[in-house]
């Protein structure tokens, strides 16, 4: 037998009153993995973290750590540790005492406490702040202390509840890289919760997307971004052009679709029947400036609006088929509002939105 | 840089003037009296002597009074705290929303009325002819009235706990309410069980509330004279000593020396509380 | 956990009933009792003690005197203290100023009483209801400042800025914006000062002349055992009227969220 996953959720369900916060969540996290639970506010992601940490009990389902069921184990006996959204650093203790807290209450010998606190402080570059009061620290320094406080306990699973929320963008980028560095160097299992998909992309090995208490997709972020299986997931991770289309022909691993005014060729998906109406998506950066003879996977349109985004420019244009589409080109292209552009895309970039 | 006299300095003038005239100058007045040559029946003469202080600080009788006063004040504070803390904890941590405040209101209603009425009530409950003795006699549990309740230090403490309870519950409630819920969760997450969370997180963070309660209970007790006079029996506190010296004996210089000593103790206690127990941090 | 919660709830309920309400209930119940002492069993219902109290001139005079003292104290303390509350908010980090203003709040009442007594007597002032008020104001000033300043502190400073931005000068801003927003706290401060001054015994004891306020009358009567039923009835009257007043005041205070600076 292989070793059990570091963290395993089996059919976890939780309702508040008659509002379902989590519905039948099943998820396994490997040892050493950095997984991000991504979802909009109110999606149930914080509840999920609280259930893993032991602050809430699921109505149904099991939580296992290293194969052992830990339902009904109080938080102070679980091998998990949480970095709270507002950090929850103890205001009456200084940096050292905060980091040492968990070791002290577990009655570690004094030398061991000092050794571990020193180790964590060095890992997070806060050795010089060790005697400061919490109120004398900047936001970024407080994050590091909160992280150190959990890391000294060497938890089997570290839970992070949007800890970078209050930081400004630059500091946030810095901390994201820092977090990733620490996690890699420790080969520890981290579960990170956020609503920011860019944050998820920067840091995680895998992403789990949660909406209205349901797990919509789990996998590496590149796959989910490029081949989402639902419109929600596709929109949540970035901009896209959506079309409703009828399946007109299924053959040789390709599917021909008709939106009513435009013909699309897409890779086939099992289970498609001719005549059914489906949703498809094309990411704006997959659209190229090109002329194509055959009337498939191409369009022509008048530019409505331009938005510069550094190296890229987002171009909104109205097509001859009556759609408003978005394309992303390198800013070196000279396009002006009112110009007519011709665009095309390849068949593998037309994604059929269907979950198995 | 020129310092400008703003409108806010002008607003402070009436208060400053009033307190100077009716509070600080009178204090200076009794400081002056405290160095005069003392004598009973208002026969005291201007002069400069440390006699009054020496007598107050070295006499067996006054030393005893000081000890008893501080013991009673401290026991009252401790007893009040022991009763008030669980109540404040319940109101702040168990009850949701404003229910706690409403219950504090319920405690305040009978207590914002004259304290002599309440002393009177306790006298009739704890006294020799009082309700409890009467009840116990009727039920045949005792044969003759128990005196321990009344005319004793214990009666003084009971009355003070009754008086001071809301003044302890309220600040404790406020500080306990202001502790973020997350800190308790963090403590548990890091391995503290309920008992350890209480002693390592809840109690240290509620110190400001305890400090305010101390100021509201201990300090006033140092100058209390009505409660011991009415229910305390032979209990004779600093307040009784000062009152007697001013009004009955008429030895102002000696009484003033005692008052100044009381004032100094008060100042030291307040200073320590503000400096070390974190009251200041509350409104920064 | 629910066991602990239950114990805490029980403890709270017991303390409130036995320690706080029981003594007061006993007084009210015995005020309708025929007998002179608080002896069981009750001897029968009567309202004669109330009739006696209501025809007692000393009691009436003491109530009137207490009202006069409380009214003088309240107006004096507001007049002097309210402007200072605004200074207090700006100067609250100025430790000497804060200490200067708050010291009367921290010293035992006995100290205020005796220093006033000595001061007035040294000046040769006749002790009267006026001297009582003058000494009461010493303690009332910080009380008023703490209550009003807490309210001013909690106000959004942008209201004042907005008013000035819209063209009102400092004075107009103060009268049209700041004062109306502060008004509830001033009302609460006034009522608390009034009740406190009405009830105060310890300071009054030292600074009163030949008149009696209600607490002084009570103190005098407590020494006469025959007066017990009269005090019982008088106390019950005050308990009932006082409860209504305090209840109204406190619910207003909670509704408006008015606290005391020291605690926030």
UniProtKB/TrEMBL annotation, chain A:
InterPro entries: AAA+_ATPase, ABC_SmlMolc_Importer, ABC_transporter-like_ATP-bd, ABC_transporter-like_CS, Mo/tungstate-bd_C_term_dom, P-loop_NTPase, Transp-assoc_OB_typ2. It comes from the Archaea. It is an enzyme of class 7 (translocase). Residues 7-237 form the ABC transporter domain. Pfam families: ABC_tran, TOBE_2. The keyword Transcription does not apply. One of its GO terms (cellular component) is ATP-binding cassette (ABC) transporter complex. Its EC number is 7.3.2.6. GO terms for molecular function: ABC-type tungstate transporter activity; ATP binding; ATP hydrolysis activity. Keywords: ATP-binding, Nucleotide-binding, Transport. The complex is composed of two ATP-binding proteins (WtpC), two transmembrane proteins (WtpB) and a solute-binding protein (WtpA). Belongs to the ABC transporter superfamily. Sulfate/tungstate importer (TC 3.A.1.6) family. This is Molybdate/tungstate import ATP-binding protein WtpC. It comes from Caldiarchaeum subterraneum. The lineage of its organism: Archaea, Nitrososphaerota, Candidatus Caldarchaeales, Candidatus Caldarchaeaceae, Candidatus Caldarchaeum.
From TrEMBL, chain B:
It is a multi-pass membrane protein. Coiled coil: none annotated. One of its GO terms (biological process) is transmembrane transport. InterPro entries: MetI-like, MetI-like_sf. Residues 66-273 form the ABC transmembrane type-1 domain. Keywords: Cell membrane, Membrane, Transmembrane, Transmembrane helix, Transport. The chain crosses the membrane at residues 12-36, 65-91, 103-121, 153-176, 197-219, 254-274. GO terms for cellular component: plasma membrane. It is found in: Cell membrane. Gene3D superfamilies: MetI-like (1.10.3720.10). Belongs to the binding-protein-dependent transport system permease family. CysTW subfamily. This is ABC transporter permease.
UniProtKB/TrEMBL annotation, chain C:
The chain crosses the membrane at residues 7-32, 63-85, 97-120, 132-153, 174-196, 228-249. It holds the Pfam family BPD_transp_1. PROSITE patterns: ABC_TM1. InterPro entries: Bact_Polyamine_Transport, MetI-like, MetI-like_sf. One of its GO terms (cellular component) is plasma membrane. Its main location: membrane. SUPFAM superfamilies: MetI-like. Keywords: Cell membrane, Membrane, Transmembrane, Transmembrane helix, Transport. Residues 63-250 form the ABC transmembrane type-1 domain. It is found in: Cell membrane. GO terms for biological process: transmembrane transport. It is a multi-pass membrane protein. Belongs to the binding-protein-dependent transport system permease family. CysTW subfamily. This is ABC transporter permease. The lineage of its organism: Archaea, Nitrososphaerota, Candidatus Caldarchaeales, Candidatus Caldarchaeaceae, Candidatus Caldarchaeum.
């Amino acid at each position: 037998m292989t070793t059990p996953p570091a963290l395993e959720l089996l059919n976890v369900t939780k309702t508040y009153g008659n509002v379902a916060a989590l519905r039948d969540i099943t998820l396994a996290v490997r040892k050493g993995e950095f997984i991000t639970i991504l979802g909009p506010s109110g999606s149930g992601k914080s509840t999920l973290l609280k259930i893993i940490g032991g602050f809430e009990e699921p109505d149904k389902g099991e939580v296992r750590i290293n194969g052992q069921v830990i339902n009904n184990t109080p938080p102070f006996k679980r091998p998990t540790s949480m970095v709270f959204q507002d950090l929850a650093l103890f205001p009456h203790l200084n940096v050292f005492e905060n980091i040492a807290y968990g070791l002290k209450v577990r009655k570690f010998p004094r030398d061991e406490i000092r050794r571990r606190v020193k180790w964590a402080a060095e890992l997070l570059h806060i050795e010089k702040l060790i005697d400061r009061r919490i109120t004398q620290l900047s936001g970024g320094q407080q994050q590091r202390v909160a992280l150190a406080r959990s890391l000294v306990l060497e938890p089997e699973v570290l839970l992070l509840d949007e800890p970078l929320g209050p930081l400004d963008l630059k500091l946030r980028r810095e901390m994201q890289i820092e977090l990733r560095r620490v996690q890699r160097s420790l080969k520890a299992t981290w579960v990170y919760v956020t609503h920011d998909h860019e944050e998820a992309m920067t840091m995680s090995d895998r992403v789990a997307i949660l909406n209205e208490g349901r797990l919509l997709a789990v996998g590496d972020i590149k796959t989910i971004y490029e081949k989402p299986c639902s419109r929600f997931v596709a929109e949540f991770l970035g901009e896209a052009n959506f079309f409703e289309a009828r399946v007109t022909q299924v053959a040789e691993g390709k599917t021909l679709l008709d939106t009513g005014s435009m013909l699309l060729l897409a890779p086939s998906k099992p289970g498609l029947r001719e005549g059914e109406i489906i949703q498809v998506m094309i990411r704006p950066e997959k659209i190229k400036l090109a002329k194509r003879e055959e009337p498939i996977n191409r369009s022509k349109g008048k530019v409505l609006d331009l938005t510069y985004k550094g190296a890229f420019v987002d171009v909104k244009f109205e097509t001859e088929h009556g759609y408003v589409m978005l394309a992303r080109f390198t800013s070196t292209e000279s396009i002006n509002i009112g110009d007519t552009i011709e665009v095309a895309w390849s068949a593998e970039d037309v994604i059929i939105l269907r979950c198995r | 840089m020129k310092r400008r006299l703003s409108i806010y300095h002008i607003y402070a003038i009436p208060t400053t003037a009033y307190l100077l005239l009716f509070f600080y100058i009178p204090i200076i007045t009794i400081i002056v009296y405290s160095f005069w040559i003392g004598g009973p029946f208002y026969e005291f003469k201007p002069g400069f002597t440390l006699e009054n202080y020496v007598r107050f600080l070295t006499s067996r009788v006054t030393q005893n009074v000081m000890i008893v006063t501080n013991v009673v004040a401290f026991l009252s504070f401790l007893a009040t705290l022991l009763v008030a803390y669980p109540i404040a904890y319940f109101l702040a941590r168990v009850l949701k929303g404003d229910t706690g405040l409403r219950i504090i209101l319920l405690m305040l209603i009978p207590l914002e009325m004259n304290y002599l009425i309440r002393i009177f009530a306790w006298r009739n409950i704890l006294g020799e002819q009082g309700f409890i003795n009467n009840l116990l006699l009727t039920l045949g549990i005792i044969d003759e009235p128990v005196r321990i309740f009344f005319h004793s230090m214990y009666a003084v403490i009971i009355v003070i706990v009754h008086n001071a309870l809301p003044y302890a519950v309220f600040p404790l409630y406020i500080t306990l309410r202001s502790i973020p819920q997350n800190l308790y969760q963090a403590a548990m997450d890091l391995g503290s069980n309920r008992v350890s969370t209480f002693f390592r997180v809840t109690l240290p963070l509620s110190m400001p509330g305890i400090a305010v309660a101390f100021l509201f209970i201990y300090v006033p007790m140092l100058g209390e004279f009505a409660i011991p006079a009415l229910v305390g029996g032979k209990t004779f506190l600093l307040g009784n000593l000062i009152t007697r010296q001013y009004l009955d004996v008429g030895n102002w210089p000696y009484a003033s020396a005692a008052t100044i000593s009381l004032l100094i103790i008060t100042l030291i206690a307040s200073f320590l509380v503000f400096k070390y127990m974190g009251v200041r941090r509350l409104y920064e | 956990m629910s066991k602990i919660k239950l114990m805490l709830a029980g403890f709270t309920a017991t303390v409130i009933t036995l320690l706080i309400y029981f003594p007061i209930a006993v007084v009210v119940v015995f005020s309708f009792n025929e007998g002179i002492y608080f002896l069981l069993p009750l001897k029968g219902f009567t309202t004669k003690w109330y009739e006696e109290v209501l025809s007692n001139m000393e009691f009436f005079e003491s109530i009137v005197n207490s009202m006069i003292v409380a009214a003088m104290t309240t107006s004096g303390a507001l007049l002097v203290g309210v402007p200072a509350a605004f200074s207090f908010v700006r100067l609250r980090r100025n430790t000497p100023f804060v200490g200067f203003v708050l010291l009367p709040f921290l010293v035992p009442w006995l100290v205020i009483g005796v220093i006033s007594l000595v001061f007035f007597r040294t000046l040769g002032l006749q002790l009267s209801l006026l001297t009582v008020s003058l000494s009461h104001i010493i303690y009332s000033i910080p009380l008023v400042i703490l209550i009003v300043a807490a309210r001013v502190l909690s106000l959004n400073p942008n209201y004042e800025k907005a008013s000035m931005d819209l063209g009102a000068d400092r004075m107009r801003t103060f009268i049209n914006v700041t004062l109306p927003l502060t008004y509830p706290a001033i009302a609460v401060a006034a009522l608390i000062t009034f009740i406190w001054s009405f009830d105060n015994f310890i300071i009054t004891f030292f600074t009163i002349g030949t008149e009696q306020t209600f607490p002084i009358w009570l103190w005098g009567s407590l020494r006469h055992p025959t007066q017990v039923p009269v005090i019982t009835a008088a106390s019950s009257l005050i308990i009932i009227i006082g409860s209504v007043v305090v209840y109204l005041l406190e619910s207003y205070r909670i509704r408006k969220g008015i606290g005391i600076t020291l605690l926030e």
